[in-house]
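Hey Z.,

So I finally got round to the fe (ii) ion thing we talked about over coffee. Here's the setup:
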Amino acid sequence: MSAEMPANVRVNWPDGGSMMLPTLWLRDVCPCPDCRIEQTQEKRFHLAALESVSVASLCADAEGLKVTWSEGHNSVYPRSFLEANHVRDQPKWRPWSDDYSPGYFDFTTFLSDRVYAIRAIEEFLEAGVLVLTNSPTEELTLERLAARLGPIREVLFDRIHNVKVDPKGYNVAHTSLPLPPHNDFASYSWPPSVQALHMLANEATGGRSTIYDGWAVLQAFRQEDPAAFDVLCRVAVPFREFDDGNETFACEPIIRLNPNGEMGVFRYSNQLMQVMDPLNPDTAAFYDAYYKLSRRLITSPFNRRFRLHGGEILVVASHRILHGREAIEDAGFRHLQDAYFEHDNVRNMLTVLERTHD
Ligand SMILES: [Fe+2]
Ligand SMILES: [Zn+2]
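And the result:
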């Protein structure tokens, strides 16, 4: 292939329709048993095996497209395959509506009932939030959620970690101070994408839980101030979380878009953000945009606050949803356990549950 325009194959169907297909794509997707591993449905043919790729002859008829390649291979493509939609749907998320309130689902039923679990996971993928009720108030109950959310995502801190007011705690969460909206482990280049917060006991006054639809806030911000939004997608910010035995650090932008330009990861943690280089001209631009976004965030209607009772588990899609806590006014006994999961595994679980018919 030369370095000019990528080559295309023009297909003219006998009924008059036509389509243009990239030549390399067409060779790559040959569905014949020599080019696929039938047992696994994987691709076997590797483009790199050919010194050059070009069409020797082709014929489009009612059944499909027959191509003889210059290397000698024959491919037959059903028309329905060539015309099929090869774009896989991504899970749909929806910004919270004005009357949104978190969906409550029973812990035991969530674990035991397939249809109920599908409904709960669908709600989670759309709203980014789920509250499980009537859970045991025993430690390590979060382990049981792996059956529905996939394996626990471990980080360098405890696999299931405790949040109590603790004068030796490594994080602001262990004080009675209010916790501004944040997601956990901004200090990882891939922070956990699902977080479960299990309230074992909550006899404290104050300390209501807060959640924010971060992506909804970002969408509105992007409309209002696209230049500032772009700065937050571009400028890398240092985050660090550490204790006596660990030191995690990542330097990443606050907003990471997916390749389609849609929301990917919102990384936001006032407490973990480190001092930026003031001599770097990006720092002033970043702060200008960060200040505007932060003002918008804390005054945003996309926030809900509620008391998380003993026996309730708040699950959030933590690349989207920020969480926080109002100040704890009086130190009645309050014990929370946290664990992380991964959004890919939750989506996997939905697919698996939907294709199981028992
Ligand atoms: Fe947190
Ligand atoms: Zn083939």
